[in-house]
Amino acid sequence: MGHPITVLLGVVEPDLEGLLITLLQNVLPGHTALTIRSVRTLPEIEEAATEYRLDLAVLLLNNIITPDSKDRVASALAGVRHLAARGVPVISLYGGIVRPEVAVLALTAGARFHIPIPVAIKRLQDAVQQCLPSLSEAAAGAR
Fold this sequence. Notes:
The chain is of the alpha/beta class.
């Protein structure tokens, strides 16, 4: 079994969370132990970044609860900056109303990839593999 991988998953709706967990399980090699840490608010993102060794974060930007801010995306981008500053690779997701500037804002904040919803599985798989170089190396070694 490969080394364990801990993914921080930022999403509120349980059905969407389940879907993203299933997608992550499908794009990560079967031999990898996967731990999901779910968060729903900016303070939870900040706490998880301090408390756990995170290998990857996947945040649905417009789905982070922000009781003190009306702009969920702005709060989530603060989470992206916080994680990126600690060296955690971030894949940002965004769905709903089309806001092309969100991709630029997410990448500027430090996300390595920005993927719109609905998620193209191949695109998510490529992003995860590029964010986790040890997976790419293991896949190359297995060939």
